[in-house]
Every structure is written in structure tokens, then in C-alpha cells.
Amino acid sequence: MMPSRRDFLKSTGVLIVSFSVNALAPRSMNAAQGPFATHPSHIDPKLLDSWLAVSSDGTITAYTGKCDFGQGILTAQTQLVAEELCVPVSRVKLIQCDTDRTPDQGTTSGSQSTPTNFNDESLALAAATAREALMSLASTKLNEPVERLTASEGIITGSSGRHAAYAELVANTHFDIPLNTNAMRKPVALWNVLGKPVPSLDRAALMTGRFEFVQSVRIPGMLHGRVVRPPGMGATLVRVHEDSVRDIPGLVKVVVRKNFVGVVAETQHQAVIAARKLAVEWNPGPDLPPQGNFFDSMQKQPSHDALSVDSGDLGTKLAASGALVRARYTYPYQMHASVGTSCAVADVKPDRATLWSATQSVYPTRSVVAKILGLPADKVRVIFVRGSGCYGLNGADAVSFDAAVLSQAVGKPVRLQFSREDEMKWENLGAACVVEHQAALASDGTIAVWDREHWIASLGNRPGYDRPGNVISGVLLGYEPEPFARQQASPPKGKLRNNSNAVPAYFAGFIDGKCQGGGTIRSERALTHTVPSPFFTGPLRSPARIQNTFANECFMDELCARANDDPLAFRLKHLQDPRLIAVLKAAARAANWQTRPMQKPPKSRTGIVSGRGIACVNYEGDNGYSALIAEVEVNLDTGLVQPKNFVVAVDCGPVSNPDGLRNQTEGGLLQGMSRSLVEEVTWDSKHITSTDWARYKTLYLDYPMPSIQTVFVTPDGVPALGAGELSITITPAALGNAIFDATGVRLRTLPFTPERIMAALQESRKGSIS
Fold first, then answer.
1. What is the pLDDT of residue 10?
2. DSSP structure class, residue 71
């Protein structure tokens, strides 16, 4: 039951506050484990002073370990603090991700920033604790009970009219109290700042070119670096011929450490020239697997296996079934393809180091840099400065490690920016994936049994706190990536793990013989094989979720076609999760969905045909819900696909900023379009070949954009969930289903290029003739 305003105000007088006059800064103590396996830190997350401070002018300074790299959480988190402390957004200054100033909140990833800071014992709880403490202090100062006090604009006013500003109560001093785990959050019904479309706080600076990215950082005495990468995967260094660059003016040093090679010069131009001219001999690595049959070879590799769910009756049920429906889906390696290449600035001195980095994980980066440099972790400071948006692991960590190595080698600050080839050839790619399904329908047209098996390629990942070798920089410096261990699957136990949406939403989720999922299918299995990758892999927006959901939702349509049912009705028959059902129905209403069986192949063989497709996801099982209806046109003469209209419904709990959520949703759809229609990594026998914009295709700015309608579904009394990866996760499946509806051909490999569509159409026409 939602508390009344009176109950809410009464709750703010429960703390007794004492102060000590110290410098205004986060308090330093060891912290307990936190979200994303955070490590003990010198900034104690259990203390209020680690999160908030009030200055003499009434400004609130808040400290967060979650950074904004384009997703808008700078604005949302500022709104959160302003809401809980009853001050305008303009009075809040948010300090993001600085290992000398902010708590360790692990990595900004996995659509976890909003759930972490809005729900957990972190920023929201700190602001609520501070508000209660200030109300208690004002009660004493004004000699009035808390329930007669109101807070607005940073001023607490009593019924007598007397008032006290926050600055009078606690200016430039520490609170010296722990977070109060019972502090009452402001209910949604009383929001004044949250829930409002506050414009992005950095929008004006971004639009006018005044925003300072990490590429803009300049340090007195700073030099410039460039790396010289091997010619291909697995190559090792033989020798470096430094004579080849001795005539380059401004060259400071050629840096060699194991298989790492780089140059440092007085200017970036000089560093670029030196890197190009430096003669380096390499032992070539082993040949890469041919791209043409790579998915087949993936399924033959040794694997680390995991069963997510298993009803235990698959063999019997499949053998007893009549006609089985089988399908195999493949998803290629894809890149982050950030428009700007990664950059970092390092200033390494004999006893300490400072790093300006666009990493999404300042504390883990601090630990790894300390390991690489041979320094204690507390002698390394990492300061987040926004860089190229990546939504995952692009080159931001690798360039930070490289810059630190170069700076240590020359004893001066070094700015390092990757070349386009450095970035695209060596980043941690979004993983390639193969998914095989087999299922059978019952006599009533519902799904009786569904067996799902998938293979995903893996090498490296985020470096975390102690694994430099998970990215190319660490491997070249002599560190090993996360080891691969072959393992047979054991029966699933404990709590259902969605395993990156490997478990379809329609599964009942059998663990230890008990149903824990939100679906109706009771004979089920979801088996995952992780296999070695020839390329570095890591998180790329909706990692593994987009691959799995593409296969799940397209196969759901195949089963629907076999049942001769309506795609929306067929999904609803197999769902029990009320929140996923709600977004499906909301999207259908907004799109004016007309019920009909799956469309048969069009009679036309030329011209433009149109179709509609639907897909939905319970992201990670319980971290956001979304449904998408896509309408497309397909040119049967060229194979070109043109998305015309998207209607998307989103449930991520209470909406902190509707404009921000709409921006994230629309951005995810557009990035999903690009990954569905054109993006694919290519390689030859030695190295990745898609190393520029001519060979790695993305949607161009002049590509015709579809209309987008976003519907928010906001159930009462639920916590905040992630939203940044919802819409992108379902885009490939919705487009694939729409293409089938338009053309009658099923594409099971991404991207849906004109060439693939024309080949599928030609094969379909051959079949109809025969």
C-alpha cells in the first residue's frame, strides 16, 4: 500500500545525526561486496558521506559509480537526487566514476545502472537518508515535529513560517552517519522531478561542440602515442627495426614490451607517421577458420556446456511426436563500430599514476592498470571522461592499458588514440552464435515439446579486476585470457537462470522438477555450448540476448505458421507472465493489430510487398519487458528491405524520464535495424578484413527512417528495471518475421542483406516450380 504524505513525512524524523568538521569529501573505509562483485574500496558505500555532500551555497554534490556514455543516466541520476532531496535539478552536481571520489559500483553495463541506483542500497537510499537527516536537524533547530515540516527548493519550513536552509544545517561538514536501510523513498505519486521529461543536461554542450570528451583531455607536457599491432591473430614479435624511424622529427621513443609495440612522439601526426614507418618482423599466427563454413565448424568445437532448464522427458516426448519442426539460426560477429576511435590519457610517475579513460569500469580498470604497471592499486587513479559511445566493450579499456604502458616507458603524460584499423581489427566483438530448435505441436495446436540448443563463441571478455589478457593489450603484454575449460552439462539446480535469454519466455522453466518460468510449455530443454572463438569477444549491446531472442522469436513464428494461427494470439496462448502479456497487448492495441493466420507467400513476383512482424522479450527473465510490431516493405526485384513503422511497448517499472526512455528505445530500434540489415564482420585466413566504413557496413545517415511509436506500460508498485537494451533485443526477430510475412521466405541468418533475400526468393521460386 502506498504511504500517505503524512506517513511519508513522519518517517523522516527517525535518525539522530552527529557531525565532525572535516574536509568535504567522500569518507574512506573498506566497503563490502556490492553489485557486480565490486571489491572492497577506500570509499565505504555504507556511509552517507560516500554518496552526498551539501556545500555552503546549498549545492548538493552526489557521487556515483555508474557513468553516462550516451544513455542519459547523468540526467536521470541527477533527477533522482533532486527528487529525494526536494531541490531543483540545477542544484545538484553529479560526480561520475572517479576512483578517488566515487564508490565502487562495478561496471556500468547490463542494463543495471537504473536498478542499482534507484532500487538498491546506493544513490537513492543515500538521498533518502540525507533528506531524513536534514528534516531531523531542522526539527531540532525550528523546535517543531517533523510531520509539520515541508521541504522545497533546499529549504525546510515549519508551520510557524520559520525555516532553515540545508546549508544552515549541514554545510561543508560530514554527515558521519550510515545509510539508513529503512529510509523511506518518495513514492511515485509524490514525484515532482522524477517522471518529468527533463532535457539531457549535456545536450546543449553536445549540440554546440563544447562538450569535452576524453579525446579533448590535455595535460601539460603531454606527448602522443600510437600502437603497432601484429598483422593477424596469434602473431608473435621477432624484432623491431628502430633504425626505420630514426629520421622522424619529434619521435621520443619506440616502446617494446613482450609482443606489445608502440611509439611516442611530440605530436600525434609524428606518432602516426612513426607507427606507419616502423619496420617490425612477426611470426605469423595460425590460419583462421574459413568464414564460409564457420558456423558448421563452431558446432564441432570442444565446448563448455550448461543446461538452463530441463524437464527430463525430451527424449520420450520427441520420439512420440509426429511431425517435428526444426530450424537452425545463425548470428554473425558484429562490431561496436564507434564513430570516434577510442582514446585515453595516462600520466604515470614512478610512484603513482593518473588515467583519464572512457572505460565503463573505473575500479576494475584501476586494478588492472596497477597490475600492468607494478604499482599498488591505491596509487592509481582512474577518472572517467566520456568517449565514443559503445554500449559494451569497444577499445576503451585496451587503449587505457596501452596509454599507461607508453606513459610509464617515457616518464611523461601520453595521449593515445587508436587508428580506425586498430579499433575495428582488435576490439572485442559481439559473439557469433548458432541456435538449433526442434519442437512439436499438440493436437490442439499448442506447443507440446521444445528442445533448444545453442553454440556461442567466446574469447576474453571484460578484463574485470585481474584479467588483462581478456583484451588484446593484455595478451600482447604476456597475460592470458580467461581460460577455456571443457565441461559436460549437469542437471540444472537452484533458482532459474535465464542465461541471457537462452530460455524462451514460453518455457515453464523446469529446475529440479519444478516450474519457475513464465510460460506454458512443460516439455522443454535449453542447452548452451560455449566454444573457443578465433577473435576476442565481449559485451555488445544486448550481449547474447539479441542473438538468442532473434532465434527464439523467429522460431515461435515458424511454429505459429505450422499451427496456422495468429502470431499475437499464438504467443499469448503460451505465456503466463502478466508483464510480458501486458506489453504484447499494449503494442498490439497501439498498432491496431488485425488478427489473422500467418500469411501465405504473395502471388506477386515483382514490385514491392509489405508485411508485419511481432517479437517480445522478458529481458534476462525479469529486467524489463518489451514487445515490438514492425511493418516493412520488401522490393522483390532488388531484395531491399525498408522498415516503415515500429510500434514498441516498454515496461521498465516507474519511468524516471520519459524523454530519456523514449530516446533509448528509439536509439535501440535504429541500432537494431543496422545490426539486422547490414552489419557483419568479415575475415580472411589471417585477420579481420572489415576494418573501415567501406567494408564494415552500418546504416548511413541518409537511410530512410521508419516512424516510431513508443508505448510505456507502467504497473504500480514495481521496482525500476533496465531499459537500454530492450528494444534492440527484439528488432532482428520482428524484422525477420515481417520479411516472412511479406515474402513467404524465412531468413535464418543475419544480416538480412538484399543478396540473401534475393537468394532466398530464387530458391523459393525453384521449389514452387518443381
1. 40
2. S
Is a pLDDT exceeding 90 seen at residue 740?
yes
Q: Single out the residue in 372, 403, 426 at which a domain terminates.
A: 426
Please check the confidence at residue 18 and state whether its pLDDT lies above 60: no
- C-alpha torsion angle, residues 650, 654, 656, 660 (rounded to 10): 0
The answer to whether residue 197 sits within a structural domain is yes
203-213 pLDDT tens trace: 999 999 999 99
Q: What is the mean pLDDT of residues 40-66?
A: 93
Q: How far is CA 557 from CA 405, 428, 500, 508, 714, in A?
A: 52, 32, 20, 19, 27
Closest to 54 in 3D by CA, of 154, 199, 121, 141? 154
For residue 751, whether the previous peptide bond is cis, meaning omega lies within 30 degrees of 0, is: yes
In whole angstroms, what is the distance from residue 351 CA to residue 180 CA? 38
| pLDDT (mean) for 696-701 | 91
Task: Report the C-alpha gap between 176 and 712 in whole angstroms.
Answer: 41
Q: Which of 139-153, 568-582, 646-660, 755-769 has the lowest mean pLDDT?
A: 755-769
Q: Which residues pair with 414 in a beta bridge?
A: 223, 346
**pLDDT tens string 70-90:** 889 999 999 999 999 999 999
One-letter-per-residue 3-state SS of 195-216: CCCCCCCCHHHHHCCCCCCHHH
CB atoms within 10 A of CB 305: 17
- On whether the CB atoms of residues 365 and 108 are closer than 8 A, the answer is no
Cβ–Cβ < 8 Å for 754, 639: yes
Residue-averaged pLDDT of the chain = 92
What CATH number is given to the structural domain containing 41?
3.30.365.10
**What crossing angle do the helices spanning 754-769 and 726-743 adopt, rounded to 10°?**
30
751: confidence class by pLDDT, cuts 50, 70, 90: very high
Assigned C-alpha cell, 56: 555552503
Answer whether 624's CB lies under 8 Å from 592's CB: no
Both 203 and 218 in one domain: the answer is no
- Is the pLDDT at 530 greater than 90? The verdict is yes
Q: Domain check: are 13 and 48 in the same one?
A: yes
Contacting residues for 409 by C-beta, under 8 A, at least 6 apart: 253, 255, 257, 264
Q: Which of 735, 724, 594, 703 is nearest to 660 (CA)?
A: 724
pLDDT at site 12: 37
Phi first, then psi: what are they for 752, rounded to 5°?
-85, 70
Q: Which domain holds residue 480?
A: 433-769
Q: Are 309 and 523 in contact (CB under 8 A)?
A: no
**388 has a pLDDT exceeding 60:** yes
Total number of domains in the chain: 3
- Cβ-based burial of 712 (10 A; exposed 0-12, middle 13-18, buried ≥19): middle
Residues 135/149, Cβ–Cβ less than 8 Å:
yes
Share of the chain above pLDDT 90, in %: 87
CA pair distance 535, 468, nearest whole angstrom: 16
Residue 300: all three cell numbers together: 564441432
pLDDT, position 37: 60
Q: Which amino acid is at 5?
A: R
Rg (CA), the chain: 28
Per-residue cell: 398: 585496451
Q: pLDDT (tens digit, 9 = 90+) per residue, 125-139?
A: 999 999 999 999 999
Inside any domain, residue 328: no
Task: Answer yes or no: is pLDDT of 290 > 50.
Answer: yes
Residues in the chain: 770
